[in-house]
Structure formats: C-alpha cells, structure tokens
C-alpha cells in the first residue's frame, strides 16, 4: 500500500485521544496507522512553548500547519520553474544533488534547496515522469530507505580496497609495503593478543604484544613501533576488515602511511602475514600465557624468524634483506 501522510481529521483524532490519555498503540489501531507513525507525528509536529510550557502539547490544527510548511519546502522544485530548470540541467550533465545544492549560491540562484530536496524531487512522480533518476550516479529507479543509505564503506571505503592497491605493491617491487594482522589466543587471555607485521619485499617480521583489541589502542601502539623508522620504510600497510583496524585513518594523518583492505572474509589476500602467523605459531601456540611474555621474549622470537634464510630471498635472511633496503634510504 502506498504511503499517505496524515490528514487533518486524523491529527484531530490523535489530539482528542491524547487528551483522553489513550495509549499510543491504541491510537494507532483506532486510526489504522502503525504506532511508530504516531510516535513520529507527535515528535515532529508537537507544539512547544518555552515561556509557557504548560501550553506545550499536540494540537491537530498546529500539526497540520507544520506538516504543510514542511511539504511546501520539499516542493520548491515543483513551484519554482526557473530553479527546477536549473537543477534538472545540472543533473543531466552529471552533477550530483550534493554538488548542485552546494553550487546554488555561486550560480546566482535566489532560492536555495538542500540535496535532500533535490533527491525528493528526482523520486517524486514529476521527477520520475522525466526519468531523472537515470542521471544519478547510482541510477536507481527507487531511492533506498534512509537507514539503508549510510554507506557501507564508511569504515573501509571502496577506494581503500586491495583491488585499488598499486600493482607495484602486489609485485613486491618497492620497499616499505607491509601487511598486518592480530594473532588471537585462548579466551582465558582476555583481550590480549599479538600484533604481527611483515614487510612484503624483505619478509621482515615485527611482533609485539597488544593488551587491548580496541582499534585506537592498536593503531597507537602500531605507530609507536613505526616511529623510529624513516617514513619511506612505512609506505603502506594491508589489513583485513577486522574491527581492530577501524582507526586506520590515524596512520595516514599521523605518519603518512596508506592503508589497504582485503575483501570481506578474504584474509588470504594478505598472504605474507598469514604465512608469518603460521611460522610464528611454532613459538606462540594458542595456549601461550601472554602476560608472561616480556619485550625481550618477543624480540627473541622476531630475531629467530628474521634470522632464518629464505629461498624467496635468494637464501638471504629477512634481516639482511631489510638492512640492505634501509641502507638505500640513507
């Protein structure tokens, strides 16, 4: 059934029943609306008087007037022909509603509208008759519900996808491209874990104990580890989409390190650190008592991993390969 707005008769009925102390759920049943619609109506169109709070409340005629004002604002693009023609012309050349609304003041338009008003017009019967939605980037015939319009990529945006990562990172041509992960242990260890990092070109490994799985704590600890090295040694780091890595933007703003992210449920896309984790499990099994691990213990494990010759490095050790790359930066 198509959505229809409340009319004056319904609003007066709500007023009468509220005055009679009728519960909202019963009001909704009486007028054939969902109770959430009634709650929203009371909240949006109720009257508040700061000077005489005893006069505050819900009044049908006042609610109708407020709703009409709101509807009139939404329909500016129907009433104002010059504004409408300008907006439609910009839509047709590929501008987004946000861009159009933001430029109205610069384009000498006497009346402003928000991008939400433009979207509302695009998906209105008038806009649909002109097939305006096809000019939007998404080209959806219907607009998604507002709660569903929150970008799913806000935390890990599409331009940070591993598929956008430069090819030279994949081919291991440049030094300073890392992969990162967390090694998780038995539940008895609580939030304690071990962060594992590996430089892709040299296979140089860094392990450190991390006492808290919160993203801010982890990223701050990671930056402390990175800080002694010159910035070219930390060009980028690739993570999976675990919640521990949500504060990745701090790496860029703090030390200039780019972050890339695997596809959901695809940790194998950062194969170097996955391989490191398997090798490190020889020394850090899942039942390891992390609280007893000192910094000296962690360094000893790193030294053993980095001191082992690797076929992929021409039988050099990661330490030797890493040292050679660092010398080039001087």
From TrEMBL:
GO molecular function: nucleic acid binding; transposase activity
Full protein name: Transposase, putative
Domain Integrase catalytic: 162-326
Parts forming coiled coils: none
InterPro entries (UniProt xref): Integrase_cat-core (IPR001584), IS30-like_HTH (IPR025246), RNaseH-like_sf (IPR012337), RNaseH_sf (IPR036397), Transposase-Integrase (IPR051917), Transposase_IS30-like (IPR053392)
NCBIfam families: transpos_IS30
Sequence ranges of Basic residues compositional bias: 136-149
Source organism phylogeny: Bacteria, Pseudomonadati, Pseudomonadota, Alphaproteobacteria, Rhodobacterales
Record keywords, A-Z: DNA recombination
Species of the source: Roseobacter denitrificans (strain ATCC 33942 / OCh 114)
Region named Disordered: 130-162
Any one biological process term the GO annotation gives: DNA integration
Pfam family, one: HTH_38
A cellular component term, taken from the record's GO annotations: cytosol
């Amino acid at each position: 059934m198509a959505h229809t707005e409340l009319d004056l008769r319904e609003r007066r009925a709500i007023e009468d029943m509220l005055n009679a102390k009728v519960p909202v759920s019963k009001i909704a049943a009486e007028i054939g609306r969902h109770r959430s619609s009634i709650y929203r109506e009371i909240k949006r169109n109720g009257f508040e008087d700061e000077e005489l709070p005893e006069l505050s409340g819900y009044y049908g005629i006042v609610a109708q007037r407020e709703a009409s004002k709101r509807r009139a604002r939404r329909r500016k693009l129907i009433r104002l022909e010059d504004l409408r023609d300008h907006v439609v012309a910009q839509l047709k050349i590929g501008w987004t509603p946000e861009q159009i609304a933001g430029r109205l003041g610069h384009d000498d338009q006497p009346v402003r509208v928000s991008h939400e008003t433009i979207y509302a017009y695009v998906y209105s019967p008038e806009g649909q008759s002109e097939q305006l939605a096809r000019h939007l980037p998404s080209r959806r015939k219907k607009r998604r519900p507002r709660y569903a319009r929150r970008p799913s990529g806000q935390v890990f945006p599409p331009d940070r996808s591993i598929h956008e990562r430069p090819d030279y990172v994949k081919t291991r041509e440049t030094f300073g491209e890392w992969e990162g992960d967390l090694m998780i242990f038995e539940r008895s260890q609580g939030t304690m874990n071990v962060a594992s990092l590996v430089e892709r070109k040299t296979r140089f490994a860094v392990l450190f104990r991390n006492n808290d799985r919160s993203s801010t704590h982890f990223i701050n600890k990671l930056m402390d580890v990175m800080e002694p090295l010159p910035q070219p040694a930390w060009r980028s780091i690739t993570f999976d989409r675990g919640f521990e890595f949500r504060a990745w933007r701090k790496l860029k703003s703090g030390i200039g390190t780019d972050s890339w992210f695997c596809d959901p449920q695809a940790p194998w896309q950062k194969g170097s650190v996955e391989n490191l984790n398997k090798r490190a499990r020889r020394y850090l099994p899942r039942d390891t008592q992390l609280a007893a691990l000192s910094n000296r213990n962690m360094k000893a494990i790193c030294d053993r991993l980095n001191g082992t010759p690797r076929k992929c490095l021409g039988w050099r050790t990661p330490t030797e390969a890493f040292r050679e790359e660092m010398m080039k930066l001087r």
